[in-house]
């Protein structure tokens, strides 16, 4: 394939996926040529490649490296590749106009359009994401989702050294700021020339809608505040979550908690995550129903889930907001030392909630997951955080996505779990020290039954069992007699009548 063929093919692909129309193709080609510092063009006689947009981008970026237009380093390749795609993507105002024209017919049509756009524009790097290992595992709580995340960009020591050399910058202030829209990128900050955001209003404020570049589940979206301000769970949060699912009834939306350890990785920019996917938690059933005296029209229940979840269901938004706010206020101040729950230590708050909202026909549904981030000498990473014996699988924060039943596990596990299989099969292996106790326990439990055909399935199932343990560790009320009684003690403080 020569360079003219590659440019022609890329433009043809952009037309095929409706990023541009045939009418735009000469214009787009000329912009691509300009970025590649090529000032002539020869119409190729035959097509050069069967590859898709990512492969063609690779070819063009490699060409630019060979011709010394850019240095062959991660950030410069990323910047050029994103600029090349930007040649095919309309301005934000045009995208918003199209989105809302479709939205007036159906919200689903609008999100279908924007999701496809975000993928074709290579903003969502589907080729990398397809490398992830995904599977489901049946448990007593339904099917948990497991993802081994292999889609992180591959950076070498030279790339990382460049990032360290970069002088620190305050623009954009973080990865979630609106100022990323169209931002070229730099070492240590991803290229976003091909990034677009949908404008919306929630509770009288400007908010923005985009997809996650890492899509961990179908149509994984991010809803972010126009203002760069800290994550906060309060009455307005609940209201905004409900307003969002009213706006997009085919999506759920939830927020990470607003405290370290139990929150997500970004606490510094107020944002939510949602999508068109039903997690095991959403399918979990009511285990114990009760009514709140002040909100008699609502259905309230403890959900059958390894973490501690109160579910509210109702037809009136004001009731839902009022009840959730009431539960939040009670929980923030709640201590029960028999259950190791302490609301404050020296004025530092520990209790918060991970809230999730969805619409079921006319009914609103809110899941309030009770969280506590207190640490002790015995559990320096958190009492309600994965304990030491499961940290060889997962030691990161248990945020919104994990709470709902999807484990996002580190890339190292891809090769490490193969070694666990080898261990079980009695083959030569290089088992990591921290997996040894687990592998020995599995070897005892599965003695004489492990074969090359079932080893992978056994290890995968056992990883899911560990993830279930991770969720149980993060649950503030344990799923035993004492824990259930403690949960009911808290419920009783809400002003309830049993039903
Ligand atoms: Zn920000």
From TrEMBL:
It is found in: Cytoplasm. Belongs to the galactose-1-phosphate uridylyltransferase type 2 family. This is Galactose-1-phosphate uridylyltransferase. It comes from the Bacteria. Residues 247-439 form the Galactose-1-phosphate uridyl transferase C-terminal domain. Signal peptide: none annotated. Its EC number is 2.7.7.12. Keywords: Carbohydrate metabolism, Cytoplasm, Galactose metabolism, Nucleotidyltransferase, Transferase. One of its GO terms (molecular function) is UDP-glucose:hexose-1-phosphate uridylyltransferase activity. It holds the Pfam family GalP_UDP_tr_C. It catalyses: alpha-D-galactose 1-phosphate + UDP-alpha-D-glucose = alpha-D-glucose 1-phosphate + UDP-alpha-D-galactose. HAMAP family: GalP_UDP_trans (MF_00571). InterPro entries: GalP_uridyl_Trfase_II, GalP_uridyl_Trfase_II_CS, GalP_Utransf_C, GalP_Utransf_N. The keyword Cell membrane does not apply. Pathway: Carbohydrate metabolism; galactose metabolism. One of its GO terms (biological process) is galactose metabolic process. One of its GO terms (cellular component) is cytoplasm. Residues 20-229 form the Galactose-1-phosphate uridyl transferase N-terminal domain. Its main location: cytoplasm.
């Amino acid at each position: 394939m020569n360079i003219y063929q590659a440019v022609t093919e890329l433009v043809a692909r952009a037309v095929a996926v409706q990023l541009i129309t045939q009418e735009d193709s000469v214009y787009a080609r000329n912009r691509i040529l300009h970025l590649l510092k090529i000032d002539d063009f020869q119409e190729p006689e035959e097509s050069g490649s069967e590859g898709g947009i990512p492969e063609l981008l690779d070819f063009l970026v490699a060409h630019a490296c060979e011709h010394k237009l850019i240095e062959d380093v991660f950030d410069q390749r990323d910047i050029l590749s994103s600029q090349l795609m930007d040649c095919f993507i309309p301005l934000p105002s045009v995208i918003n106009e199209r989105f809302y024209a479709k939205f007036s017919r159906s919200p689903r049509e609008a999100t279908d359009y924007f999701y496809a756009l975000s993928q074709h524009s290579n903003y969502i790097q589907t080729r990398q994401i397809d490398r992830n290992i995904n599977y489901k595992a049946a448990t007593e709580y339904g099917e948990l989702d497991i993802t081994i995340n292999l889609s992180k960009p591959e950076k070498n020591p030279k790339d990382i050294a460049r990032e360290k050399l970069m002088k620190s910058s305050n623009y954009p202030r973080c990865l979630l700021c609106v100022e990323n829209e169209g931002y070229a990128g730099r070492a240590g900050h991803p290229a976003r020339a091909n990034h677009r955001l949908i404008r919306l209003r929630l509770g009288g404020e400007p908010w923005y809608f985009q997809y996650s570049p890492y899509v961990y589940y179908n149509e994984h979206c991010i809803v972010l505040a126009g203002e760069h301000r800290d994550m906060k769970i309060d009455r307005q949060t609940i209201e905004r979550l409900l307003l969002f699912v009213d706006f997009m009834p085919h999506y759920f939306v939830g927020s990470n908690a607003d405290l370290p350890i139990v929150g997500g990785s970004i606490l510094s920019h107020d944002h939510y995550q949602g999508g068109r996917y039903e997690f095991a938690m959403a399918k979990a059933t009511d285990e114990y129903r009760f009514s709140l005296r002040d909100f008699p029209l609502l259905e309230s229940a403890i959900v059958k889930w390894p973490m501690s979840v109160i579910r509210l269901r109702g037809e009136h938004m004001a009731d839902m907001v009022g009840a959730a706010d009431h539960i939040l206020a009670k929980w923030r101040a709640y201590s029960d030392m028999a259950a190791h729950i302490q609301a404050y230590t020296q004025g530092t708050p520990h209790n918060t909630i991970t809230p999730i909202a969805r619409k079921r026909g006319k009914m609103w549904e809110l899941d309030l997951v009770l969280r506590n981030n207190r640490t002790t000498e015995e559990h320096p990473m958190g009492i309600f955080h994965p304990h030491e014996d499961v940290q060889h699988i997962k030691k990161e924060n248990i945020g919104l996505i994990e709470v709902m039943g999807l484990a996002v596990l580190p890339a190292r596990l891809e090769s490490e779990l193969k070694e666990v299989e080898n261990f079980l099969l009695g083959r030569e292996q290089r088992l990591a020290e921290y997996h040894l106790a687990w592998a020995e326990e599995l070897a005892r439990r599965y003695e004489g039954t492990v074969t090359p055909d079932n080893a992978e399935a056994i290890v995968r199932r056992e990883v899911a069992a560990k993830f279930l343990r991770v969720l149980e560790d993060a649950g503030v009320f344990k799923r035993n007699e004492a824990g259930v009684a403690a949960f009911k003690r808290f419920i009783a403080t809400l002003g309830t009548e049993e039903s």
